[in-house]
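Researcher: Let's continue the batch. This sequence belongs to Sensor-like histidine kinase SenX3, and it's 398 residues. Same format as the previous ones, please.
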Amino acid sequence: MDSTQLVLLALLLGALIGVGITLLLVVAVRARERILRENSDALPTGVSAVLAALDEPAAVVDSSGTVLEISHAADSLGFVPGRPLEYPGLRDLLKVARGAGTAHESMRLPTGKLKGQERLISARISRLTERWFLLIARDLTEQERLQQMRQDFISNTSHELKTPVGAITLLAEAIDTAADEPEEVRRFASRISAEAERLGQLTGRIMHLSRLQATDELTTFGDVAIDEVVTAAIESNAVQADSEGVELVRGGDRGLYVRGDAQILIEAVGNLIANAIAYSPRNSRVGIGVRGDGEAVDIAVTDQGIGISEADQERVFERFYRADQARSRRTGGTGLGLSIVKHAVYRHGGEVKLWSQPDRGSTFTIRLPRIEAPVREPERRPKSSARKAARSLKKEKA
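Model: Same format as before. Here are the structure tokens for Sensor-like histidine kinase SenX3:
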């Protein structure tokens, strides 16, 4: 082997040794960086930005379950930086994630507000590093409640419609049987008319509620005078109030305006007044008060009736729910009035509040965003009428 070949061989060995040393250095540097990341107290790059962008409760926790950083919505589930995860279910899920890298489970967590109340959440924990884990919890409580409401709506609607339809069928058969007895026929016919009216009222309210819940409705918004809304709502219930021996008393501020659909607001306030009359004793009062501040208009309807228990107050706005079943049947209530009120007010950007105590009466308050009184153009009708009268007089003279 000559010297040239020896030189080339030496160069090749040197290159191989250099590459090997470089690879060893790269592996060592990466291992060092990995160890530093695992032992570092700093979160991985971008995690804080991700947490800030999340609308759902989320948190970064270490392998022991201590919370390090949270999203803005995480405090609703009791996540506090520096403290361990409060719920055993989440701690158990973290143990699974430590072994598998990721874990997902739906679970119920206590709300911490009222005994026995729970939240349904869908929790997912994923590994960020060997030390850090990302926990995202999606609250399914409202979704579950809406699903239950849909099922209740279908069930209750079927039941409510079946009652008058069945009654009409039986009464029709009774008329056929009593065809030779005019008095009985008239009595059964009168009851058929009452059941048909009840059926029409029920279907009409169901359709109205469906329209309120549709996204493409309420397109005829305009400036609405609260004075006109309250006056119309009182007038629509005046006959009922007189027959029940209940006095309607109006008070409060005048000249307030909101943005909305006047007819829908009249029906919402009218439903509250009708309920107040139905649940009030004879010789009592129902007050309708209006108060405005810089931001909103409050319309309060107060009765001196039987009141609503605390257990029923959270459910009175549900469709077909009746706190007093016997009285509702006696008064012909459909159980949809307060649900219509709630959806009508929500579609106007407002809210409905309730205060009540058994045997002390109830107060339902509609709160709507206030607007400034619109500027009215000068009335020109008299001038126009005068011109028309003048033209007519000229023609007559001609």
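Researcher: Any comment?
Model: The longest strand covers residues 361-371.
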